[in-house]
Amino acid sequence: xxxxxxxxxxxxxxxxxxxxxxxxxxxxxxxxxxxxxxxxxxxxxxxxxxxxxxxxxxxxxxxxxxxxxxxxxxxxxxxxxxxxxxxxxxxxxxxxxxxxxxxxxxxxxxxxxxxxxxxxxxxxxxxxxxxxxxxxxxxxxxxxxxxxxxxxxxxxxxxxxxxxxxxxxxxxxxxxxxxxxxxxxxxxxxxxxxxxxxxxxxxxxxxxxxxxxxxxxxxxxxxxxxxxxxxxxxxxxxxxxxxxxxxxxxxxxxxxxxxxxxxxxxxxxxxxxxxxxxxxxxxxxxxxxxxxxxxxxxxxxxxxxxxxxxxxxxxxxxxxxxxxxxxxxxxxxxxxxxxxxxxxxxxxxxxxxxxxxxxxxxxxxxxxxxxxxxxxxxxxxxxxxxxxxxxxxxxxxxxxxxxxxxxxxxxxxxxxxxxxxxxxxxxxxxxxxxxxxxxxxxxxxxxxxxxxxxxxxxxxxxxxxxxxxxxxxxxxxxxxxxxxxxxx
Length: 488
Hints:
Helix content is about 80%, strand content about 0%. It has 19 helices and no strands. α1 (about 15-45) packs parallel to α7. The two termini are about 25 Å apart.
């Protein structure tokens, strides 16, 4: 069984192994957000329309990639439970089955997304300015992104399988390498060698001029950001595949594990489908929210996208604890230790709530300088975007403590293989919390964009309270694997 550096996940003290498991996940998630923030920083120096374009693109991209994302949850959960049950061979087989299954999904979804980009953007009601200035840029970004989807999925699968095994440091290192590559090549593909802010920061304008003269390359704009992301993800996927097949750092995967085995495929589907539905429903929810947001001016669209990226950054401690809880609950249920699993959940919830309350206070205090960092000042549009973004972040800060608890409890449900319950409370938070509140406050009660910010916070608070109350019933304490399965 995998043993993190801080100690065993199924024996002894919980605090040290939980911390040892969680902090690399938090760093990995931080690096994941760095991908998006790098695009935002550089595109923010290109134009407000460029920032708004990726704000529109991401919910639509997430809608399609959520299908594969749900099955990575299944792979992580099953690897964790088989590892806890000390069934290493089965953990490797699950890993192989998950890799092959999601590869097929990634190729299929990428092709569909490429050809459906214009149709997806066409369903969004838009103001004339947004339709003319923003949506064409979003389409350019999405088409390149979908072509590189297998590379994106490749790292997701690698990270999920390693996390279930209890090794969270390897994905962190791979992600770091990929992010460094992305940050360096992003401005090159966006601006080329003409008015490139990276060369300005480094004092290399003369080198830039020489490169422009010799190559004539003046960048691809928004499309360049997508190209940089795909290339850096490709590097991460190649390294991840090597780690799984060429080292002993994760599950022992053999080529024979890629041969379809119905018993394992059935378990992957049973656990993965609710998670895929959950993520797809979440994506549809954000598309619905985006459809309401794009009826406002481009400055509101840009503030909404930037605010979401910043709040996703400060949610990282909660997300890390939630994913660590997934692994700890999975391994302890596999080892037939449900009470230890429950103790881990309550410990993580207390830590998550405390950390996120402090984070919320800091986010409220420093909202203005942080938002302003991502938008070039000097125009009325930029100043308005900054003001709107600051208001958004400060309102969302009040929900942070609740999101810390919600992510941990949802991680516990997923670690137990109880993904239907996680689906239920995710739908409650989004479709009965956020979306109706945003609509009522913004369009019925006249709060305009402030109603969007308020509605975004309400849903998570409702979801946290409901999911925690249900968790206390204790009906989730069942393993979904046997210690010595016999594959079909």
